[in-house]
Amino acid sequence: MPYALLQPMVNFFSNHKYEILLTGLLQHLFIGIFLNDLAFYTRVIWPINMLILSLTCLGIFWQKRKKESYFLLSLFALVSIMPIALPYFQETRFMEFISIIYVIFFGVILYEVMRFLVRPGYINLDIISASACGYLLIIEMHVFLMSFLLYRNPESLGTIDLTNPATAYIDLVYYASIVQTTIGFGDISPKAHYTKLISALFGIVGQFYTVVLIGILLSKFSTPSQDT
Length: 228
Hints:
The protein has about 230 residues and is an all-alpha fold. Helices cover about 70% and strands about 0% of the residues.
């Protein structure tokens, strides 16, 4: 495809990267709202879901140095391929591996989002979108760290449905969101000492992120906004 035809797409990804990433995160975390067949989710929707999410991250890493680009492309390819490979491996061990890779994946994205948030001295749509992305990325990391611990020890987190990876994932998204928003219904609770402490830590991190973010946004309101 000629470069002239690609350029508008490149410009769109570059100018709207955080809105695109926010869309990818929302569909990844909450697409289960629209699905009844969770086995179908595991087989079909999950691989497509991760491919979409990986593509929505590209705008953030568009101009990285060559070595960083190779690492990020390899990571994006890995998180996209792993759901497809799930039926060919022993589920519990492979889900532990997937969970750790996803924690790293979302941690890398969160690092880039935070670097952006503290840099500009203005507020615009990118800042708002990136702020929401950071909040959802903390939930993603909590989900997959708990997923790793749950597959290692199913007794470490109570009342999680381990019928298939989709039911476990949806329960964990719900649990991590409840912890981070401090709603605390109590229907899912940690049973092991390490899951209790990790949940407490993510609750603190979520609240700290909110407080720091409010400070960042207030400071940016003191200078004129810029167009994205």
